[in-house]
Design brief:
Pfam families: HTH_18. This is Helix-turn-helix domain-containing protein. Residues 204-302 form the HTH araC/xylS-type domain. The chain is α+β, with helices and mostly antiparallel strands. It folds into two domains: 2-189, Jelly Rolls, CATH 2.60.120.10; 200-306, Homeodomain-like (Arc Repressor Mutant, subunit A). The chain contains 13 helices and ten strands. It is globular and about 60 Å long.
């Protein structure tokens, strides 16, 4: 009976193993139904990673190493494109048929969490969750939410021996993960929603504008207009929601797109600069080196060397 229960808890892991075809380091199942696995990708080539999960789960990823080139899609539409730093986290709904395109070696922790579990715990404590936010791709850095710290504790403790005290420790960490995720979605549900805040629909209109015109000139007024806010209100609301200015975020997205083009096309660096909204090659190179530590020419040389 215990073996059957353990197998049932690990069903999401087995479902993903059927489509990812990747080495795993360890896996675990907690008493509250949360299960997890560490995926180790040792192949540097381009990979398509689909989902094979039921629709009632949230997939939490902790990136144990950097993922240099990744595109994540929900319902066929991109929700993230570019580099994922070590220690960063992402939450995606399985109902959105998430899939990823990756290039390079990486290691990540996956945790599979039932939406019903979050709803039950939230109801017990009279906490309102936002179903709409649970249907979105959420990302963050290690220092932006306790979620990453909890994932790292699970990562460091889940592979220990399976005695009673070890199981107790894992179950306790899985409960802490539930509390972190309830807080993550309750924060948005309880956020103010006045005429000068950057609500979900307003933020999505800005994201759509940026995605459509990433290679063109985009001004602060353009983004404020898409959000339906004045320039000053938009700037304040954007920084409150995302923790950085809109132009800084725009530059970051352009650099991530430039990295993708370096890895996936034979376009020259000058062509890539113009395609991603930079004035010229030197303009791109200056900002690229500031973010990635190396100029685009060095990245291109490394890519060509690995393909020989």
């Amino acid at each position: 009976m215990e073996e059957e229960v353990a197998q049932a808890r690990l069903a999401p892991v087995e479902a993903m193993r059927q489509v990812w075809h990747m080495d795993t380091r360890w896996e675990f199942g907690a008493a509250n139904g949360i299960c997890g696995v560490v995926w180790d990708c040792a192949r540097p080539d381009l990979r398509h990673l689909p989902s094979n999960l039921p629709d009632d789960l949230l997939v939490v990823s902790l990136h144990r190493t950097p993922v240099d080139c990744v595109e994540v899609r929900l319902d066929g539409a991109p929700c993230h494109n570019g580099r994922l730093a070590a220690g960063s986290w992402m939450v995606v709904p399985s109902s959105g048929a998430p899939e990823a395109l990756t290039e390079g070696v990486f290691s990540l922790l996956h945790l599979y969490v039932s939406r019903g579990l979050l709803r039950d715990v939230a109801a017990e404590y009279d906490i309102d969750l936002s179903p709409a936010r649970m249907d979105e791709c959420r990302t963050g850095r290690f220092d932006q939410h306790t979620l990453a710290a909890t994932c790292q504790r699970i990562d460091s403790g889940a592979a220990i021996e399976s005695d009673a005290l070890a199981r107790l420790s894992r179950d306790r960490m899985a409960q802490a993960l539930v509390a972190d995720m309830v807080a993550l979605f309750a924060e948005d549900a309880g956020a103010p929603s006045g005429p000068e805040t950057l609500t979900g629909p307003r933020a999505r209109r800005v994201e759509a504008l940026v995605a459509a015109r990433l290679g063109e000139a985009i001004t602060l007024d353009d983004m404020a207009g898409a959000a339906g806010l004045s320039r000053s209100h938009f700037l304040r609301a954007y920084k409150a929601r995302f923790g950085e200015t809109p132009m800084a975020r725009l530059r970051h997205l352009r650099l991530e797109r430039a990295m993708t083009l370096l890895r996936t096309t034979d376009a020259s660096i000058g062509e890539i600069a113009l395609a991603t909204g930079f004035a010229d090659q030197s303009h791109l190179s200056r900002h690229f080196k500031r973010l990635y530590g190396r100029p685009p020419g060095a990245i291109r040389s490394e890519i060509r060397a690995t393909r020989r």
